[in-house]
Amino acid sequence: MKDLLRAKLIECGWKDQLKAHCKDVINEKGLEHVTVDDLVAEITPKGRALVPDSVKKELLQRIRAFLAQHASL
């Protein structure tokens, strides 16, 4: 499922959008003034918001199908 998610996010341009946002944050604050924690805190909400609904729906369907298959175990 991780591979599917990764492929779908790359396919829809999510990865490129997030990378561009990271660069913007670093350029705004200056490389010396941004920690990894700052960057994660800044981009996480936008990263979640940028995931297309179609990707969310497809993954949810696959998770439900997986759970339905394995519920009887």
Low-confidence stretches at least 5 residues in length (pLDDT < 50)?
none
Bulk shape? elongated
Strand proportion, as a percent range, falls in under 5%
Q: How far apart lie the N and C ends?
A: 20 Å
Strand elements, count: 0
Largest sheet: none
Q: What is the residue-mean pLDDT, rounded to a whole number?
A: 94
SSE order: HHHH
Radius of gyration: 16 Å
Specify the number of helices.
Answer: 4
- Structural class assignment: mainly alpha
Helix share, percent = over 70%
Keywords: Activator, Chromatin regulator, mRNA transport, Nucleus, Protein transport, Transcription, Transcription regulation, Translocation, Transport
GO biological process, one term: protein transport
GO molecular function: transcription coactivator activity
Pfam family, one: EnY2
Map the helices and strands.
Elements: H1 2-11, H2 14-29, H3 36-50, H4 53-70
